[in-house]
Amino acid sequence: xNDDPVMRRAFEGQRLLLQGDRDGAREVYAELWADxxxxxxDDPMHRVWVxxxxxxxxxxxxxxxxxxxxxxxxxxxxxxxGGIDGVSVRTFxxxxxxxxxxxxxxxxDVRRAREHLAEAERHLRGHPADDERDGIAAAVEGLRDRxxxxxxxxxxxxxxxxxADLDLGLDVDLDLRSRPVD
Length: 182
Description:
The protein has helices spanning about 5-20, 20-40, 45-55, 60-80, 95-105, 110-125, 130-150.
């Protein structure tokens, strides 16, 4: 179990999300984000992770994209800082760009969806070979297929998790209603 209290709470939210409790997960993430702000926690890896999982809990594609963009900015901030313990922030980029590609596809912005798909593929090439990489690679292929052959009669997941990117297997020592400033 991760000893980082931020990560423990984020995993709590992911557990709720996996159980189909999107509202409960959003509540956990909103409280967690507010606590990060209140504590002055400027650890960009906390912000990457919390924004990344907050995006997963959103039903509205525009909100998903908003939180994925917050996560991407935090990842860029973390990369600029350097010297990060645990898994490098670079391991987040394939998933972040994959999620943004899916979000923009769902919003009908195929150009931006393709841009983020290309970035996900580029970053995936540098990702360590493991089960997570294999899962992201499969999701990248799925996104490519959905962009090239848009689903017409796709039935939504009854739990609303069909587009969620749940990284529960990621073992890291990192990394709402209140929205950060864009």
